[in-house]
Amino acid sequence: MDSEDRQVALVTGTDGLGAAVAEDLARRGWSVCCHAAAQSAAEAAAEDAGRAAEDAGADARCEPFTADLADAERRELLVENVLDAFDRIDMLVSAAAPPPAEARDLLELTANDVRGATEAALVPAAMLTQLVAREMVRQVEAAVVENPRIVLINSIAAYTTSADHGGHCVARAAMAMWTNLLADRLGEHGIGVYEVRVGMISAGADDPAHETYDDLISEGLTPIRRWGRAGDVARAVGAVAEGLLGFSTGEVLNVDGGFHLRRL
């Protein structure tokens, strides 16, 4: 594939789950814009993705990008910088995760708590996808790209209650609706929109909650009785990247070990 025709993905949150996504896409021959809030994290992700492409014999260009996605001007500059470097965006994977929120009983939740959770978990992702969607529409109309895609990495908190993290649950539920709204609006332009809804991903044995959930998982909390891995999320995004869901949009890909089944 000529370098000018190589598909380009912007992956946010490569200091977290986005790192595995960037590596997987690079192995598939996608050029990847590795975003992280810190320069060192973005550079490390780009290096790892480039190494993964090289090991797979793929021709992929991987570059680091930084931006505070909570800042409107920085979001705009990120998109501008990606376009300056690659001239196109074929796929956006919004994987940046908000910082963990302090637990607070639902009956003690304040307006600022709800507002803060929304500002952290929803607004940056929603506004970035809006910016990229506008650019994708323009590029489709100019015949620069075909069938671009947007993937939002969300959480089972979109429908699973956690009464001491109410604001976060509300923000995640709103992100699920944002996915549907984008899919509805962008379908006429051939832009597919997908949500990868993530369950329990192992953060390692050092995570204070690991032992508790380890026992619950082994006892059947999820039909697939193991922790999720970053690679599970990356392969779900890979299915979208390969065009395997070309006649689907607004689709939720549950990467949760079957937690969503609501079993008796």
Protein traits:
264 residues; alpha/beta; Rossmann fold; seven-stranded parallel beta sheet; 8 helices; 14% strand
Describe the structure.
- This protein has 264 residues and is α/β, with parallel strands linked by helices.
- The protein has one domain (3-256): NAD(P)-binding Rossmann-like Domain (Rossmann fold, 3-Layer(aba) Sandwich).
- Helices cover 43% and strands 14% of the residues.
- The protein has eight helices and seven strands.
- It has helices at 18-27, 39-55, 72-86, 111-121, 123-141, 166-186, 210-218, 230-241, and strands spanning 8-11, 31-36, 62-66, 91-94, 149-155, 192-198, 251-255.
- Strands 3-2-1-4-5-6-7 form a seven-stranded parallel sheet, with helices on both faces.
- Strand 5 (149-155), helix 6 and strand 6 (192-198) form a beta-alpha-beta unit.
- Helix 1 packs across helix 8.
- The longest helix has 21 residues, at 166-186.
- The chain is globular.
- The model has no long low-confidence stretch (mean pLDDT 95).
